[in-house]
Write a structure and sequence with these properties.
Layout lengths: L2 H8 L1 H24 L13 H39 L4 H12 L4 H7 L6 H17 L13
Length: 150
Amino acid sequence: MEIRDMAARLGQLQHLRREVDELSQRIAAVEEMAAGGSPRLTGLPRGGQRDDRVARAAASLADLRARMARRRLDCMEELGRLYAFIDDLPDSQLRQIFSARYIDGLSWQNVAWQVGEMDEQVPRRLHNRYLRKKICENAKFDEKDEENLL
């Protein structure tokens, strides 16, 4: 596994959470569309358009909710993998860095502040050094991957 692959894998939870948030917003928009609509004008003939819109919204909601359930399950599985990875880290500071970055989704500056550093480069370098070491142990390290470190 290359460094960029490992870093991408670690960042997967963040992407899944964004996807869940986006699906939540879509569900809210469809629910609003189904419940809302323009006010009824009196004196005009009524068409079946409202019923058709509600049926389309119900089908769309069912699809979105099924996708949301799958993504939430993916998030839980990824979270479990991340916790297992972080728990296996040898150093407490590294566990804090990885947890703040990948579980909490903090920026490097906020990670630095959380672990008691002022410069974001300190936790980033510790993070990258550990990943580099882990990759070297797996014997598939490519020197050009150093450019792709987080």
